[in-house]
Amino acid sequence: MQEENEKDLTAYCGLYCADCIHFRNKHSELAGQLKESLEDADFQSYANVKSPFGSEFQHYDSFLIVLEALMNHSCSEGCRNSGGYSTEPCQIIPCCREKGYEGCWECGIFETCEKFESLKPRCGASVMHNLREIRENGFKGWSKLRKPIYNWQQA
Ligand code: SF4
Ligand code: SF4
């Protein structure tokens, strides 16, 4: 991998964007096709009628919320260049930029920084591993030593 690509795909927080479940994914496109197909069939009208046949469809509105989220959570470039795709603004990107850091690995307090709280439920282990890896061994080629991105993928 070229160093330039590695940097583009390394988020300020130390996550590797190519590992993210939303990055260039297939499911967003499929979700869009499914929504279109359901609209063509006017499935909403069918679901609106209470009936013993298909009582599960009483949850159709909730299903559409998830379906639209799947459609919208897609990105094709790393958050370093795109600015991130979270529904809530990322606090880490502006913090690094204001300080002139390439990433939080340059910051003396990343181990205790509160801005990582929102990442912990899904990516807590990989974020800290990656930041320590870059801080201790340098940036070049670091991604070969990264951990799987999600907590449930950890060995
Ligand atoms: S948007 Fe923020 S928290 Fe999300 S990957 Fe990029 S730097 Fe990390
Ligand atoms: S305070 Fe340091 S560790 Fe926290 S987001 Fe800003 S640069 Fe990253």
UniProtKB/TrEMBL annotation:
Protein name (database record): DUF3795 domain-containing protein
Species assigned in the record: Methanosarcina horonobensis HB-1 = JCM 15518
Classification of source organism: Archaea, Methanobacteriati, Methanobacteriota, Stenosarchaea group, Methanomicrobia
A Pfam family this chain is assigned to: DUF3795
Protein origin, superkingdom: Archaea
